[in-house]
Amino acid sequence: MLKKKRFVLFIYKCIRFLLQHNTFFTIFVGVYNTYRVNTKLHMRRWATTAVMFAIFTAVIGGQPWKLQLHCPEEKIDLRLDLYEESIEVPGLEAFGPMNGYMDGNIYGVWYVVSFDIKDDKQASITIANDLGSEDQKLTLTQNPDSSYQLKFLGYNAVKRAQGKKLVKIPSEMKMIIKK
Predict the structure, then answer these.
(1) Within this chain, do residues 53 and 96 fall inside the same structural domain, yes or no?
(2) Residues 92, 154: one domain?
(3) What's the whole-model pTM score?
(4) SS3 77
(5) What pLDDT is attached to residue 29?
(6) Burial grade of 101 (CB within 10 A; 0-12, 13-18, 19 or more)
(7) What is the distance, to the nearest Å, from the Cα of residue 93 to the centroid of all Cα atoms in its chain?
(8) Which distant-in-sequence residues (6+ apart) come within 8 Å of 114 by Cβ?
(9) Residues 86, 63: contact at Cβ < 8 Å?
(10) Can you give the pLDDT at residue 98?
């Protein structure tokens, strides 16, 4: 059992390394060409490579929380990558990459502080304003039509400037994937 766990961990680390360095397909072709002479060894290597390829496609295809959303009615954008800190937040570049942010027709930029992925269809996210003085919890749920429903939980602290006043934005918004 311990050997199996080590092997799975090894495969996971290899795939992660290869994905980060964009060398998966080079290795895939290299393994095929190197071991095609010995049939028995070839079949074993081919099976290992096929398993790695299946895991690779599952990892790439299974990232529903790496997306850019837009609400056309409110003119608000939400950019998320809940798998790694890879998004530069405008105005907060000094803090390095983060998991995402919300901006557009709102007052300031709100960045992702924490999150909890419930499943492929729903995630709970906490955002904070660029000053760090307020935070807001929200849920993001995927609808059957591939749009998303954003719902602020509790008191809605996200506001927009309208004239000389700050007014709250709606507590529920329908967001679509931005092309």
Answers:
(1) no
(2) yes
(3) 0.66
(4) strand
(5) 45
(6) buried
(7) 19
(8) 125, 126
(9) no
(10) 96
Q: Which residue has 């290899």 as its token pair?
A: 14
- DSSP helix/strand/coil, 53: helix
Question: Could you give the CA distance from residue 113 to residue 108 in angstroms, rounded to a whole number?
Answer: 15
Whether 97 contacts 86, CB under 8 Å: yes
DSSP-based three-state secondary structure for 158: coil
Computed on alpha carbons and rounded to an integer, the radius of gyration of the chain in Å comes to: 22
Q: Are 173 and 71 in contact (CB under 8 A)?
A: yes
Q: What is the pLDDT of residues 84-123, one digit of tens each?
A: 999 999 999 999 999 999 999 999 999 999 999 999 899 9
- With a pLDDT cut of 70, the percent of the chain lying above it is 67
3-state helix, strand and coil shares in percent for the chain, rounded to the nearest 5: 30, 35, 35
Looking at residue 82, what is its pLDDT?
93
List all residues 6 or more positions away from 18 whose beta carbon is below 8 Å from its beta carbon. Answer: 24, 27, 56
Q: Are residues 159 and 72 in the same domain?
A: yes
Residue 91 amino acid letter: G
* Residues 13 and 38 sit within 8 Å (Cβ to Cβ): no
Domain extent for 152: 66-177
Domain identity same for 55 and 108? no
